[in-house]
Amino acid sequence: LHRNAGETEFHQAVQEVLESLGRVISKHPEYAEEALIERICEPERQIIFRVPWVDDNNDVQINRGFRVQFNSALGPYKGGLRFHPSVNVGIIKFLGFEQTFKNALTGMPIGGGKGGSDFNPRGRSDREIMRFCQSFMVELHRHVGEYTDVPAGDIGVGGREIGYMFGMYKRLTNRYEAGVLTGKGLSYGGSRARTEATGFGTVYFVERMLATTGTSFEGKRCVVSGSGNVAIYAMQKVMSFGGTVVACSDSDGYIVDENGIDLALVKEIKEVRRGRISEYAELKGDGVHYVKGGSIWDVPCEVALPCATQNELTGADAKTLVENGVIAVGEGANMPSTPDAVHVFQKAKVLFAPGKAANAGGVATSALEMQQNASRDSWSFAKTEERLAQIIHSIHDACAETADEYGAPGDYVLGANITGFVRVAEAMRALGVV
Ligand code: NDP
User: Fold this and answer.
1) Does the keyword Oxidoreductase apply (predicted)?
2) How large is the ipTM?
3) 114 flagged as catalytic
């Protein structure tokens, strides 16, 4: 603990994985040899740097940039960049650690990494965002590359930010290296369906999980937290599968619309105006209820999809959801449920899809973007979405089969942790002590 002092979220993520590994080590003691578990918990490299930039008032601002290159046994480091004031080394390390197993679950040749900055994009002008992204890339470009480390978006980093960073990378290196970043715009090497992939994938996973008990999204009442990239496209896919989304949120509060969320309006507010979810209630008027603060999990539902941030769903929230009759929970965000909450769901036999399996559709589609870039190709939306659905179904089935094999049927947490771990461990053993 003293080696990683104060890194609360990192401790939480490591503990969650280690708790699943007892069964695999008793069956395969070779995975504990040569300090493999200790090596897997130690990032290969951590980069922390100063990001100076000039705001619109001509004042100099200083932020801190991070890139944690966690594990490259399976391929180049791959994982998003997060711009949010809460970012610190412990958060980036938890995300990079989770990413390593998530990427292994996709079955694609990608290692794990994560990065970002404590920069707060809220209220910043487009020019400020551009100057920040450029300054961030002035340092980051030394550490990334198509064969080294391939960042993408995360909280606070979408198509606009990736564009500004790619522009600066291209200028600094004098190389049109499309495969250095994913989540690019369609006009310069992006993949169709990447924007939608994480949210869509989460819903594909939950649909397959519901099917194991003979049910589906059809007619189900759903609550989705957040209203960013993952939440918006999760809502869209729930609706296309016949479910009704009655509530969504941002960090200020949540809205409840019993007629079903008007997704076109959410997209207009969040993607075009970059506004707040409270504006939905102002624009819709009657029948919409806005709650400032509070917990969105108080809204009764059958399927809950936390798609905002880590530890947003507590043990108390989980109890409320169970009392209100929730049957399935799918994590679109990374580690949104606290350990207490996961325990409550599992005890109540609620179908529970952990983020590292359920939200892997985003990174899987990023790997498809790398594939298209490498072959100078561009696939149709339908073809890309079909590949995404296949990948998610195979992740679901691998997790379910592993859970069965290890005597814990229906435990997707155990299934995901063991499947991901075994894939990384096999490669690390083959590569020797490096
Ligand atoms: P966005 O920035 O697009 O949206 C984030 C949403 O979550 C916003 O509605 C935001 O509200 C809300 N939010 C953020 N922080 C908090 C907080 N501390 N408390 C309450 N609400 C908060 O990010 P994404 O949709 O891309 O990411 C959401 C989650 O999904 C993250 O956990 C991310 O790691 C995970 N994820 C994302 C992937 C991707 O492809 N984008 C891939 C896999 C996982 P506000 O606007 O008020 O800040």
Assistant:
1) yes
2) 0.98
3) yes
